[in-house]
Amino acid sequence: xxxYHEMLEEKRIQQSMSRKGNCLDNSPMENxxxxxxxxxxxxxxxxxxxxxxxxxAMEEYIDYYNTQRITA
Length: 72
Prior knowledge:
Blueprint: H1 4-10, H2 27-40, H3 51-67
């Protein structure tokens, strides 16, 4: 089995990591995942029967976020 780093190198993907404890280095993704957690999970009693069900729900949320969600 290939290591994660070997797979990245093979696909010519450059890994970028922020400094430890500094969420501002990656604020766009921190913002997105914060919104996704608030809008998909917190205050709701979602249960997913399988990992595939969760994956589908996340894909649908990403599509909604990119195409329909009103941004401020």
